[in-house]
Prior knowledge:
CATH superfamily of the largest domain: GntR ligand-binding domain-like
Largest sheet: 2 strands, antiparallel
Structural class: mainly alpha
Strand order of the largest sheet: 1-2
Helix content: 55-70%
Number of helices: 13
Number of domains: 2
Order of helices and strands: HHHHEEHHHHHHHHH
Radius of gyration: 19 Å
Shape: globular
Amino acid sequence: MTRQANDGAANAVGRTIPGESRFAPRSLRPSVSDYVTEQLLELISAEEEGSRLPSVLALARSMSVAAPTVRESLRRLQAIGVVEIRHGSGVYVRKAASRVLFANPYSGPLEARMILELVDARLVIEPTVAGRTAVNATDKEIDELREILDEAAELLDGHDPLLHGVNMAFHRGVAQFSGNAILAQTVESIVELYTAEQLVILRLFDNRLRDHDEHVAIYDAIRRRDAGDATELMRQHLEDVLVVLEERLGKAGAAHAVQRGAPRGKGVGLSRR
């Protein structure tokens, strides 16, 4: 590899360039894939089990996006049991769709376990990342986190896909500004690979204001350069989400709580509303 190529690769994973953020700001905004996944979930919510969805090309035209983006979202939805892709035949709605789409107990054992393990994995990684960000983020990067939260505040009474995208942008931003490119890429990968599951979590958790208040508290600790506080607040935030999910996912949630040695029935974040 040439020196020029090496320099490009280094910049891509977060080497600081004077006067610039270490990561491209565009990556912190809601993705087209997030939007498409949410629109597909809305469409599926009105369909009966076994219904065949419009063709990929028709769906792409209706949402003004490229067909590969629709295929990617459909694969994600198939992975959590919302649809079944039958090659040569089409895409069909599965029974699990009604459970996934609303904030109520979700009994699919494999899908529920995936959702719980997703938050559990984030709980292991993101508190450490938040502490690093409090130490390593530039003032400009901290201002960018503030801008993301300001945008989220305007969407608290709005549509789920936009709020979800901005909330995930905050978590990606905290990771990206940590100074550790591998940790940043890990969080980015989790968010990108599990878009559909994150949307399920949004519906199951179902408390926009509390979620936002906890994001603001994490931001404030980062702004104060308090690594310990940022770490603990991020831990409390994700732990609180996980406790709510365990309470609402029935037997799968109870089994997961036991597996990780956590008492059920009380959150540890900000007071519930």
